[in-house]
Amino acid sequence: MRAVLQRVSEASVRIDHKISAVIGDGLLILLGIEDEDGLEDMEWLCRKITNMRIFNDENGVMNNSIKDIDGDAIIVSQFTLHASTKKGNRPSYIKAAKPEIAEPLYEEFIQRFEKEFGKQVGTGRFGADMKVSLLNDGPVTILLDSKNKC
Questions:
Q1: Which active-site residues does the annotation give?
Q2: What is the three-state SS of 45-99?
Q3: In the chain, which residues have pLDDT < 70?
Q4: Closest Cα to residue 11, out of 128, 129, 124?
Q5: Under 8 Å between Cβ of 140 and 2
Q6: 0.90 cut: is pTM over it?
Q7: Measured between alpha carbons, how far is 56 from 69 in angstroms, rounded to an integer?
Q8: Strands 18-23 and 2-15
Q9: Residues in Cβ contact with 70 at an 8 Å cutoff, skipping those fewer than 6 apart
Q10: What are the C-alpha distances in Å from 96 to residues 91, 102, 112?
Q11: pLDDT value at position 149?
């Protein structure tokens, strides 16, 4: 399971010209799922994200988590995080989980994240054509992969 965390001052998701989610300070989380992902990957990633100290403290040092700042979050599924670009110029998505596997894992991830985080999050809609807007704060962008925990 891969996640791209973007520290944002604001972010939103539009689907069919309608706002699906909007937040101020917090995280835009892009989530990529592969067939091998399961409960252990979800739990590790949820804990890691909610405790990641990437928000500034009163001294301007990245020392606070999203919980510490009472921030908000949006979680958007993004199969392209598992793109392979080794051959040619067209990415291959063979490692990305098929929708029948990925969608239930995405929904479960949202529930587990909310439980770990302690509040509801905004979301996209699995498989939809989404327009994601953000104002990256910093910029701070972090890549996490549950298969590379070390």
A1: 78-80
A2: HHHHHHHCCCEECCCCCEEECCCCCCCEEEEEECHHHHCECCCCCCCECCCECCH
A3: 150
A4: 124
A5: no
A6: yes
A7: 9
A8: antiparallel
A9: none
A10: 12, 8, 21
A11: 80
Residue reference for tokens 């994200």: 49
- Which structural domains are found in the chain, ordered by start? 2-145 (3.50.80.10)
DSSP element (H, E) containing 145? strand 130-145
- For 90-128, how does the pLDDT look when each residue is reduced to its tens digit (9 = 90+)? 999 999 999 999 999 999 999 999 999 999 999 999 999
The C-alpha atoms of residue 105 and residue 59 are separated, in whole angstroms, by 39
CB 96 within 8 A of CB 46: no
Are 123 and 75 a contacting pair, CB within 8 Å? yes
